[in-house]
């Protein structure tokens, strides 16, 4: 037996090294290989075994979108951004980030209506730009979800402490001497929360949605309490004291906008539920766009309420709202805020963990990760393996890692994916399935991105103000020229982004600009992550998908009774 096993291991290693020798050939075949929407909807989806169960309605989707975003944004980022970047104008940062998120959500909505599968941005980019771009975006989405969920789970501990009247947010964490700063405070409450939600999500999507609907309803009532009490007991003078509405100028407002973009992680998870909703053509636009509108309004009001209660330089970076009520003498209200925020964080964590598992499931269907992660449990209709795997990853990071270490790398990953989706929508509408050659569209996308980078560099250098009107003007002229010279031959679908290509072009510009406001350390960490996932693709993903497609082609040939029948190949 040992001899046979040894021979099997040698065979496996031999085959793997033989595959590695063919890497250049396989990269040429697979990196730009695309799937059609019909293949995504039918052929690829069958790889999960059982289908997901369509039980969700439009109000479930709106509640999931609202619940997914609310707990993250206000309770995690508002305090630090107001204190260190935007000052009392943090609500303007939310408006700017909200406009960018709304434009991105329009792009997501059109794609989700045309390709209603659980893969979200991964599937949209794979059918447009090919396998590698889809994989790179999907890996970044998973990184963004896992890190943000870990950060949110740790903030749950801080607000739970506040609910019990404990002022020190680290009092429920275990400090371990010898570990690096930022990784040395173990948070077992966060781990327990993540594991409990993981097991709930494994059981049923519909029951999880009902739980979220109840929590979100209470959460909105609770938001109303904070907004009303904040405005009634605050002072408008705090918006201009001690150093004006924008103490760090427009630069501080925009830096803050890039960070609070973290708050809008959540609406994209709604698109991953496309295989579990009834009437996706109507439900998806209402769920995605409706949730972004509702949350943007609540974010602005909550940010204003915080800044009228307490001068921005006295806002606590941890559990900001609880501490604000305690500062005005309402300790009991601070406890209520802590309890309500904890509830909101649970709702947002539930939705985000729901979305991340579906992303991984569809990436598994594509064979870019081990296929067992794509399996859907036949009785529960949930991606069981993906849910358990990512739940354990999230719990492990939540145990060690402080919020400050992950928050900016989350923002850069989110902005990059939204940037790619906006590019993909323009390319798909103006090139694919139409008679337009790709060169004009690719040139337009290149010019928009280059001008956005030039505008951002001029903004960074401060002295080069002439670059702002120059690059801004070029973007407007180029977009108008493209709109009138390149016809959009693609027939309108049931739902389509209006005034194209302007919304997608503005989304591209804003995402690039907001990315450049982040710190260099974020780009360094992101570069390391990008290198790791590219290495994984080269060593595993490309070989797995190449062999899966070769096997699929052979099976298809064997099933065709007439040899003259030609198989349809992937578009490259």
TrEMBL record:
Keywords: Membrane, Transmembrane, Transmembrane helix. It is found in: Membrane. Residues 495-544 form the Cationic amino acid transporter C-terminal domain. The keyword Repeat does not apply. The keyword Membrane applies. GO terms for biological process: amino acid transport. InterPro entries: AA/rel_permease1, CAT_C. It is a multi-pass membrane protein. It comes from the Eukaryota. GO terms for cellular component: plasma membrane. The chain crosses the membrane at residues 58-79, 91-111, 123-143, 186-203, 210-229, 288-312, 332-355, 376-399, 405-427, 439-459, 465-484, 496-514, 526-546. GO terms for molecular function: amino acid transmembrane transporter activity. Signal peptide: none annotated. Belongs to the amino acid-polyamine-organocation (APC) superfamily. Cationic amino acid transporter (CAT) (TC 2.A.3.3) family. PANTHER family: INNER MEMBRANE TRANSPORTER YGJI-RELATED, OS04G0543600 PROTEIN. This is Cationic amino acid transporter 6, chloroplastic. The lineage of its organism: Eukaryota, Viridiplantae, Streptophyta, Embryophyta, Tracheophyta.
């Amino acid at each position: 037996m040992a001899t046979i096993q040894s021979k099997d291991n040698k065979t496996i290693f031999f085959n793997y090294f033989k595959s590695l020798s063919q890497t250049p050939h396989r990269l040429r075949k697979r990196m730009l290989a695309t799937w059609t929407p019909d293949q995504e909807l039918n052929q690829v989806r069958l790889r999960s075994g059982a289908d997901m169960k369509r039980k969700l309605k439009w109000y479930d989707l709106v509640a999931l979108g609202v619940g997914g975003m609310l707990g993250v944004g206000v309770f995690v980022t508002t305090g630090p951004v107001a204190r260190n970047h935007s000052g009392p104008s943090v609500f303007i940062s939310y408006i700017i980030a909200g406009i960018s998120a709304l434009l991105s959500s329009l792009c997501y909505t059109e794609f989700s209506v045309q390709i209603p599968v659980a893969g979200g941005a991964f599937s949209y980019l794979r059918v447009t730009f090919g396998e590698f771009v889809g994989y790179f975006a999907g890996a970044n989405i998973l990184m963004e979800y896992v890190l943000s969920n870990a950060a949110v789970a740790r903030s749950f501990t801080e607000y739970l402490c506040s609910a019990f009247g404990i002022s020190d947010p680290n009092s429920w964490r275990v400090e371990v001497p010898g570990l690096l700063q930022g990784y040395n405070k173990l948070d077992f409450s966060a781990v327990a929360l993540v594991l409990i939600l993981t097991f709930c999500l494994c059981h049923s999507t519909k029951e999880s949605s009902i739980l979220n609907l109840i929590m979100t309803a209470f959460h909105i009532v609770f938001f109303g309490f904070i907004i009303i009490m904040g405005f009634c007991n605050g002072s408008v003078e705090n918006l201009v004291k001690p150093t004006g509405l924008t103490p760090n100028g427009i630069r501080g407002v925009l830096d803050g906008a890039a960070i609070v973009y973290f708050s809008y992680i959540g609406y994209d998870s709604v698109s991953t539920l496309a295989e579990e909703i009834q009437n996706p053509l109507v439900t998806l636009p209402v769920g995605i766009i409706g949730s972004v509108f509702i949350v943007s309004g609540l974010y602005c009001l909550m940010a204003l309420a915080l800044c009228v209660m307490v001068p921005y330089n006295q806002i606590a970076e941890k559990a900001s709202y609880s501490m604000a009520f305690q500062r005005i003498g309402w300790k009991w209200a601070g406890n209520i805020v802590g309890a309500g925020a904890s509830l909101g964080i649970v709702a947002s964590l539930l939705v985000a963990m729901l979305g991340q598992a579906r992303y991984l499931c569809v990436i598994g269907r594509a064979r870019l990760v081990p296929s067992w992660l794509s399996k859907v449990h036949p009785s529960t209709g949930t991606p069981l393996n993906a849910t358990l795997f990512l739940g354990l990853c999230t719990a492990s990071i939540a145990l060690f890692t402080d919020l400050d270490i992950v928050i900016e790398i989350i923002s850069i990953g989110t902005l990059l994916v939204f940037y790619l989706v906006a590019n993909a929508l323009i390319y798909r509408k103006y090139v694919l399935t139409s008679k337009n050659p790709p060169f004009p569209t690719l040139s337009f996308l290149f010019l928009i991105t280059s001008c956005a980078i030039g505008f951002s560099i001029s903004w960074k250098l401060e002295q080069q103000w002439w670059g702002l009107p120059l690059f801004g003007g070029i973007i407007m002229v180029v977009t108008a020229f493209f709109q009138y010279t390149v016809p959009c031959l693609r027939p309108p679908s049931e739902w389509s982004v209006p005034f194209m290509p302007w919304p997608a072009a503005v989304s591209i510009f804003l995402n690039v600009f907001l990315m450049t406001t982040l710190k260099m350390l974020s780009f360094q960490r992101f570069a390391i992550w990008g290198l790791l996932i590219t290495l994984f693709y080269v060593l595993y993903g490309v070989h797995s998908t190449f062999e899966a497609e070769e096997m699929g082609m052979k099976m298809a040939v064997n099933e065709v009774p007439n040899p003259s029948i030609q198989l349809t190949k992937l578009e490259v």
